[in-house]
C-alpha cells in the first residue's frame, strides 16, 4: 500500500484489489457508468456478479502481467487502474491500460498517480514491453494525461462509438517501454 496526496490535499491510498473488494468494485463501476459517457460501458451495463468479479480478481492476483490497483480516499474507491494482458505468448508483452476515476475526483491528480504506478509496475514485471489503450478522441483531458506520460497516437478508429445517435472516434495509443 502506498499513500499519496492529491491536488486537493486528500490522502489517496493505492492498494492491490483483493477478492474481498469485489462488491465495492462492482458498485464503483456501476456508479461511474452513470457519471460519464467516456467509458466503454454505460449506466446499468457493468453486468458482472460478485462471484465473477471475485474470480477476475483472483486471476489477476496470480498473474505476472495483469494488475488491478484501487485508489481509495477515506477507505472508499475513487479510482481503479488496470493492466490487462493476454496469456498468449505472442501478445503477453502488451498490457492494455484502463483508468477510471470517480467524477467527484476528476482533475485531482489521481489519474497521474495511477498512471505512474501502472507504468512503473509494467517496467518491473519483466514481461510487459508495451502499454496500449483506447480513448475517445474528444476526451481531451484523458488524451492530455496519456500524452503527458509519452503515449503516442497509433491510429484512429472512425465512428467506433455510438451514443444517442452521435458517432465518436476512438484513438489507439501506445507506449513502448523497451525495444526488443
Description:
Helix content is 28%, strand content 36%. The chain is an alpha+beta fold and 180 residues long. It has an 8-stranded mixed sheet with strand order 1-2-3-4-5-6-8-7, sandwiched between helices. Strand 4 (76-85) and strand 5 form a beta hairpin. Helix 1 packs across helix 2 (50-61). The model has no long low-confidence stretch (mean pLDDT 95).
* SS class: alpha+beta
Largest sheet: 8 strands, mixed
What coarse outline follows from CA principal-axis ratios?
A: globular
Helical percentage:
25-40%
Number of helices: 4
List low-pLDDT spans.
Answer: none
Number of strands: 8
Sequence of secondary-structure elements: EEHHEEEHEHEE
Multimeric organization: single chain
Instruction: Please state roughly what percent of the residues sit in beta strands, choosing from under 5%, 5-15%, 15-25%, 25-35%, 35-45% or over 45%.
Output: 35-45%
Question: For the CA atoms, what is the radius of gyration?
Answer: 16 Å
The span between the termini is 32 Å
Amino acid at each position: 500500500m502506498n499513500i499519496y496526496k492529491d491536488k486537493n490535499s486528500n490522502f489517496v491510498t493505492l492498494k492491490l484489489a483483493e477478492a474481498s473488494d469485489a462488491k465495492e468494485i462492482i458498485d464503483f463501476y456501476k456508479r461511474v457508468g452513470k457519471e460519464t459517457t467516456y467509458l466503454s460501458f454505460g449506466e446499468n451495463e457493468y453486468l458482472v456478479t460478485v462471484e465473477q468479479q471475485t474470480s477476475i480478481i483472483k486471476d489477476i492476483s496470480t498473474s505476472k502481467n495483469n494488475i488491478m490497483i484501487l485508489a481509495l480516499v477515506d477507505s472508499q474507491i475513487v479510482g481503479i487502474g488496470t493492466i490487462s494482458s493476454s496469456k498468449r505468448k505472442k501478445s503477453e508483452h502488451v498490457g492494455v491500460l484502463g483508468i477510471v476515476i470517480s467524477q467527484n475526483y476528476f482533475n485531482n491528480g489521481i489519474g497521474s498517480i495511477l498512471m505512474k504506478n501502472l507504468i512503473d509496475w509494467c517496467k518491473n514485471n519483466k514481461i510487459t514491453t508495451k502499454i496500449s489503450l483506447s480513448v475517445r478522441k474528444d476526451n481531451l483531458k484523458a488524451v492530455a494525461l496519456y500524452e503527458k506520460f509519452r503515449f503516442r497516437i497509433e491510429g484512429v478508429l472512425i465512428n467506433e462509438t455510438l451514443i444517442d445517435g452521435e458517432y465518436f472516434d476512438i484513438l489507439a495509443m501506445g507506449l513502448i517501454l523497451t525495444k526488443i
